[in-house]
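Transporter: structure, please.
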Amino acid sequence: MIFKLESKARLLYPGVLFAFVSFFDSTLWAVDGLTRNAINARYEALAGTNTALGGSPVDVALNPANLSLTKGKKLEFGLGNSTIYNRYQDQFLDSNPSYAYTNDKKSQVNAPAPYIALKLPVTDNVDYGVALYIPGGAIGGVDKITRNTPTGQSLNDWAGTNIPGPIGDSKQIKETNSNQFAIVKLVNGLSVRLGNLSVGASLEAVYGTQKLNQKYYDITGTVEIPGQGYYYESSKKAFSIGGVFGVNYAFTDRFRVAYSYQTHTSVPLNGHYQIGLNNSYYYRRTGVSYEFDLPEKHSLGFAYGPENIKFAVDLIYTNYGSYLKKANQKLEDPWLPTPFGNLADADAHLNFRSQGGVLLGFEHKLSDSWVYRLGYSYNSLAIKSNGLGGTTGGFFSLYHVFAGGVSYLFDKWSLDLGISYNGPKNHVSGAKGTDWDFSHSIKTGPTSFNNLGYSYGAESTILAVNIGATRTFD
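Here you go.
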């Protein structure tokens, strides 16, 4: 997959955002999930429940109307880390034993994501908030899996190499794929309180970055095959603009209802694509373009309880299905290697499904010093069998989330801890006819493939730990 960056819009405060991006870009800090379950430690412990609850400066990025529920000046900052446990399995069964293989690869990835947010009162009825954070991303890939050559020929015949012995005569090779993608947001917003009603709006400055890599090795995995594979990297000018709108209404002192809307944003990505690596005869470099769509999201929330005990429910809907079904990737030159030959236009069939979810949160202030929280969420799967691939990562498993955490209060500080677990493991079997299925078949003619013996599947769990602090100034 390739993602285009095209300079369509300029950010509010681009220097601040770019400095933040540059800080982590060498390791590509991100989380696996396309969108995170929660930004801060408090909401992590509540399994992401936040829409009607409020009370945190990061509300500017979630439901800006809730800034009115936070009294005085507050600064919040912290670091979340998601540990993603992926397992990828595939096999090719054939009557010819030289084509048969099995892979079973397990991987573990740590994906840190820092955040900082500030809430300031403007007047008695107007509040301002600003936040800088990473809403999500993806880290996926497989490392040196066994596969047949795309044509079913020997390594030497397929790649035009001259490797001696059984290695050059083998019809099998090793493949490595990696996909690293991250989004960073700088959000500014206002909330206006009108009696029992609060209304808020935020403007988002959005930055995206992505790197993709594919390499082929001989069957021993020691020698990278020259003239094969590709590398893609987006440019440093991937800026766009989005927004968040929200309302919160207090029916009584104990019962509130809220709604928030996250707008659709196209992240323009222009980058370069290198093809035929490590061989001056095959090597090509060309521009590539694509716009990655972050879908709109609707959240309806309810919160009930006195000051020291809160029950909260969120109903969410994210419209992935309207934006991430298919992606058309355009190269400046017809050099993109695909199962159908080298092309300038290649379709990536992402096949995302729109996602619905139910989030439940409970917060109890035990004393002046201690607060504990519990949460659970159920999310329908955004990726199923017809969208699975080796670089999908773990976001397709964001399914059942169990969470908990505590806060310790002293002076003007709150030290917060939130932990969530995405599990149990959910196994997804890949469908026939997908991009991944075709790319691992044996091409037997211009448009004919032998993939009947190929099958694949994956499973993933995610453990997220979020540590933060909040400082009041009143």
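Notes: The CA atoms of residues 8 and 268 lie 6 Å apart.
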